Amino acid sequence: MVRPKYFFSETFTSLKRNFFMGFTAITTVAITLFIVGFFVIIVYDIQGIIKSVESEVELAVYLEDNISEELKDYIEQEVLSWEETDSVNYVSKDQALERFREQNEGSDILKEIEGNPLPASFEIALSSPEKIDQVALKFMDKDGNYIEGVNDVIYGKNYVNKLFSITAIVGTIALLVIIVLLLAAIVLIFNTIRLSIYARRKEIEVMKLVGATNWFVRIPFLFEGFFEGFVGSIISIILLYFVGNFLLIRGERVIVDTMRIKELAIVGSSSVVLYVYIGVAIIGGLIGILSSAIALRRYVKI
Amino acid sequence: MNMIEFKQVSKIYEDSTAALKNINLAIKKGEFLFLVGPSGSGKSTFIKLLIKEIDESEGSIYIAGRNICNLKSNRIPQLRRNIGCVFQDFKLLPNKTIFENVAFTLEVIGKPVYEIKIQVPQVLKLVGLYSKINSYPHQLSGGEQQRVSIARAFVNRPPILLADEPTGNLDPGTSEGIMKILSRINLIGTTVLMATHDRNIVNSMRRRVVELEEGEIIRDQKRGVYGD
């Protein structure tokens, strides 16, 4: 039988001797996968920013002035028990007035106010903001009237719905762009590896002439394709690591600070980066080996 | 015993040009045969059929008594290991040394390293190129490169050696050297089939001559000459 050592030594001597083609293939893999990976991380972070905007979406439930303490407590407990609820904050009439005064300090409107016209309310933060419509409906009975003790429910319906439709569009576009980028990367890598095999078709011809079996011809090329894809993806992972840690995080901090977003799935701190790394490595190796296999079909068939 | 036998073999290419028409020919073990004829007479087709680079359209081809026509594609490498091939353009690998070029044939069939290390120098001595064992093809003259390609074809001692215009690119003096090596290989018992249109060589060797013209055998002569 053929020695496995032959295939390894053949792979590496050939990499050494066909340095330029190998170098081109590795660089192509590194650059294209870097672009894809970089874009995935950015898109993920943009989604993170949008998410944190979404999470600030709140529902205000205004209570009737004459609501009993029991009913108020009952509603609060009820709301807390819903799975969509993240937190509930009770604002009493006095607190509402106090807040109103702070917000409108120096304005003439304060002089017009007599007594306390502001209602007490619950401010409800949601764990799943896209369900805000359903949650709002829970404060209504079958006939569309508010339940007892509740005067009004306000959540900026249009604003919220617009936000969610923008999120959906951004998500779809990002997915399409990632797919297109990935396809472009695959085609580019495939062509480069095919060229490097084309450059060595004479070698393949001679191998077949002296009676090499198809697998004997294929294996060193497959190893080589895998090696080029894998090394290229490792390089792109290293690039992603540095760019992610030193540029993205700083850039996003600026965005976070200026937009006053509470929290953000920042690069490096999120698990998605690890998945991107693993994905890039797998895709790199796979593209390498598959490109070789497909390109070889033309030259190896007897 | 017939080493190679063609029975009513025809080859018609896809563009419907007939390269070989109804060829009947038997070549004995240990024979030296010249296949002569002008370009396009079917010499190369003849050789390609033998190594199954192409398939015949009709008829049967026997090698050492076995019909190779319905050979499965995974048996083709085995067939080629028993047929050494030498070409006009040498087909050496430019990025491998002379040793590696020759060793290639043995690596392909899975020979152990120690055997390769014995057999390659041996065959390089046979073709008189032992001193160039670590050179690269581009450092050699055309004649030397052809001798390397003969060494590569012969290193695993195949019973058949095919040569397609092996002296086509070489000057008469160098060609003579190549013919000496082929004769020597033939003397060991190898069946040699050489396609050529080198008149001087055919006339000086005085071996069996088969002449092709437009895909048909028009002459088969023992101890023949090139003809008119």
In short:
The complex is a heterodimer of chains A (302) and B (228). By secondary structure, chain A is an alpha+beta fold. Chain A has 10 helices and 4 strands.
What is the CA-CA span between the terminal residues of chain B?
A: 32 Å
Oligomer: heterodimer
Mean pLDDT of chain B: 92
Largest sheet descriptor of chain A: 4 strands, antiparallel
Helix content of chain A: 55-70%
Helical residue percent of chain B?
25-40%
Strand order of the largest sheet of chain B: 6-7-8-3-9-10
The whole-number mean of residue pLDDT values of chain A reads 80
Number of helices of chain B: 7
Uncertain parts of chain A: none
- The geometry of chain A reads as elongated
| Elements of chain B, N to C (H/E) | EEEHEEHEHHHEHEHEE
Number of strands of chain A: 4
**What gyration radius of chain A follows from the Cα positions, in whole Å?**
31 Å
Largest interface, Cβ cutoff 8 Å: A-B, 20 and 26 residues
Strand content of chain A: 5-15%
Can you list the strand order of the major beta sheet of chain A?
Answer: 2-3-1-4
Shape of chain B: globular
Order of helices and strands of chain A: HHEHEHHEHEHHHH
Provide key terms for this protein.
heterodimer, A: 302 residues, alpha+beta, four-stranded antiparallel beta sheet, 10 helices, 4 strands, B: 228 residues, alpha/beta, six-stranded mixed beta sheet, 7 helices, 10 strands
